[in-house]
Amino acid sequence: MLAYLIRRAGYALPIMLGVSFLCFMLVHIAPGDPLVAILPADASIDLQKQMMKLYGFDRSLPEQFFHWLWRAMHGDLGTSIATSRPVTQEVMKAVGNTFMLAMMATLIGFFFGCLFGFVAGYFRNSWADRAASFMSVIGVSLPHYWLGMVMVIIFSSQLMWLPATGAGPDGSGNWKWDIEHIKYMILPAVTMSFIPMGIVARTVRALVADILSQEFVIGLRARGLSEFGVFKHVVKNCAPTALAVMGLQLGYLLGGSILIETVFSWPGTGFLLNQAIFQRDLPLLQGTILVLALFFVALNLLVDILQTVLDPRIERA
Amino acid sequence: MSAVLPPSAMPTPAPVAVVRSRSHGANVMRRLLRNPIAMTAAAVILLLVLVAIFAPWIMPADPFATSMFKRLKPIGTPGFPLGTDELGRDMLSRLMLGGRLSLFMGIAPVLMAFVIGSGIGILAGYAGGGINTVLMRCVDVLYAFPSVLLAIALSGALGAGITNALVSLTVVFVPQIARIAESVTTQVRRSDYVDAARASGASAFTIVHRHVLGNVIGPIFVYATSLISVSMILASGLSFLGLGVKPPQPEWGLMLNTLRTAIYSQPWIAALPGVLIFVTSVSFNMLADGLRTAMEVKQ
């Protein structure tokens, strides 16, 4: 077990290094001078050279990379070109908001996904199964940014039940867990929850159907266990995989929330990325992507390890 | 004991007709044709593609003609069956012409990734050893990004535009296809018939060409078709963010973006382009599901 954990963590290290390298390269695959956004159009060659030196662009690529990596490992992701504030500070503020939203969406999606999945798996080939399967196809085929717009149209513009954009009545700065603030989270979170819902439903349906067809379930029933008792066994058996899927989905949502955050003007990493892209603020883009991608890799690792711990039957080669 | 029956009592064997067994492809096609859901999906896709191709000839109005007096007319206005957009352009015509870029941007990256990803995966799977490790670790790094994030990161860095969006989306799908291609190829490489071919002195090229390709392309292709729906959503998403197609070109994602300002005045017009993205994406998903069942590819 311990050997597996060490090996699995060792495998994640080169991936993290590769991910960092790719994020580093983002600035260099960008066409044009990365400093073009801050330099005046008529900047003298001298000034250009000075700025290049200041941002370290005059050194060789490997040198730049290791210098950048070293600083990133110490929590310094450089300075935003547009705002001159430290990137780390901006990203950390936004990550909190995105995490909150993604977590909420994952929980909603997981709950309904499991519900549909269990119903479909228990009553295979019934109308409920077909409905649940249909729901899961819809869930993975929905353009979520469009669903967000439709939600705004229905619940904000037509029914006027919920606010359409932002993260609180007094701007977006300080989040509180009260009803006034939570109202702002409902639409984006429900919209986002459709992404994991379909996938969780599909997975749970397959798991439940598979477990119910196994001999130990016939054995349990033969011993006179109540249907609820059997159900508990089914839950226990599909929990590790379902939880793993949920963990990975949380990671996807953290990275993929940009579109939904744009629709709802949610002040998270998506908003930050949008800003970084349109102001050509490459250090901010690089820093945000790096944090999200590393988070995703770490979450993958955590899910793998947890799954092994939860389900000792899984033999890791 | 054994009674010898006279020849006349022997059951006459039925005349053996030389029936050429149907090819695998024909079987798959036959099963697919019998699947009503997949066929409906295919019909919808065909319709959308035909409308997109012939849009310039069947459009009721000029999709670029703006008019300040005809802005945001509701659905059902005479002359504008689906209303007009925020610049007074005919929605129906723009949706028809917009299908060209939307479908192209959804399908092209998957096709390109299918070629590149299969190439990488088959090479890694067949070569094994060090080549496999190096190639697949590179693929793993790309795979470690959530796909939306990678697409946005690349197009964000490269800048807006159709070509850049196509490149970014291709890069997103290459690792996914390469991983499938690698695992299928590794399985085939270990099979007896490949060993037999090698033992009989066939060159690596001959083995890959005659024995491996035919067996791995099917599963890879099925997987690739299931990515088209994701690609449609992502491509339109990039345009929605302003990273793909540039105005005034009509494209469904971009139309959604520019119509966002109208969700309070003409909500149903604002939602229209999304309906088409959704219908296309569902159809591709269902067709891919049908194809997977027809090919009996387990995933």
Structural notes for this entry:
The complex is a heterodimer of chains A (317) and B (299). In chain A, helix 1 (2-29) runs antiparallel to helix 12 (282-310) and helix 11 (269-278) packs antiparallel against helix 12 (282-310). In chain A, 74% of the residues lie in helices and 0% in strands. Chain A is mainly α. In chain B, helix 2 packs across helix 3. Classes of the chains: A mainly alpha (317), B mainly alpha (299).
Concise description?
The complex is a heterodimer of chains A (317) and B (299). Chain A has 317 residues and is mainly alpha-helical.
Report the CATH topology name of chain B: MetI-like fold
Query: What is the count of DSSP helices of chain A, taking H or I runs of 4+ residues?
Result: 12
Roughly how many Å is the radius of gyration of chain B? Answer: 26 Å
Characterize the largest beta sheet of chain A: strand count, sense, and whether it forms a barrel.
none
β-strand amount of chain A: under 5%
Mean pLDDT of chain B: 84
User: What is the CATH C-level name of chain B?
Assistant: Mainly Alpha
Please identify the structural class of chain A as seen in this structure. Answer: mainly alpha
